[in-house]
Design brief:
The protein is mostly helical. The chain has one domain (3-174). 71% of the residues lie in helices and 0% in strands. It has ten helices and no strands. It has helices at residues 3-11, 15-22, 26-34, 40-59, 69-88, 94-100, 109-119, 123-134, 139-145, 151-174. Helix 1 packs antiparallel against helix 2 (15-22), helix 3 runs parallel beside helix 5 (69-88) and helix 4 packs across helix 5. The N and C termini lie close together (9 Å).
């Protein structure tokens, strides 16, 4: 089922048809939440929250799909999960991550994909990149903040994180059209 068909089913209150297409996204949500300090139950809760947000936006006439639906829902899940982690006080630098990754509905498609690619990185990679690019920390400060053994380890880790973000971007870019 295409993204467009799912949206049309939701607009026309044909939920059982839309649900089949939407739940194809759940395994990706579970994997992402588990990779970011959560459980399968947390993932299902976040996915339900994302579906409610999608439903409300569609029926309020505020929804325009500018990225693949999977990318959009994963970004909503990401934002909901980061908010939950902040409530649980487990996510350092979350405010900086929110500053870097604006709400997907206000982004250009390329930026939305880049934001998702960043957020599919592990927590340590995201923290390292935030410290380096956003907070302008030296490799020495980054090594100390992230308990790395040396500046060189921080440099190498930054390189690996950038490479992984590029891979994520390419994968997300090629993983589906907007239809």
């Amino acid at each position: 089922m295409t993204d467009k068909e799912i949206i049309e089913h939701l607009q026309n209150n044909k939920y059982s048809r839309a649900i089949n297409g939407l739940y194809d996204i759940l395994p990706s949500v579970k994997q992402w939440v588990r990779n970011n300090s959560g459980s399968a139950d947390d993932a299902q809760d976040m996915f339900q929250d994302a579906l409610v947000i999608l439903y409300k936006k569609i029926h309020a006439g505020e929804f325009t799909l500018s990225v693949p639906l999977k990318t959009y829902l994963l970004a909503v899940v990401r934002n909901c999960w980061f908010a939950e982690l902040r409530r649980r006080k487990k996510l350092p630098l979350a405010d900086a991550a929110d500053d870097i990754a604006d709400d997907m509905t206000n982004e250009e498609p390329g930026l939305a994909i880049a934001s998702s690619a960043f957020n599919f990185l592990g927590e340590k990679c995201r923290q390292l990149l935030i410290l380096f690019y956003y907070q302008k920390k030296s490799f020495k400060e980054i090594a100390r903040a992230l308990s790395l053994s040396s500046e060189n380890v921080a440099k190498n880790q930054k390189y690996r994180c950038i490479q992984k973000a590029k891979e994520n971007y390419v994968t997300l870019s090629s993983n589906g059209s907007h239809e």
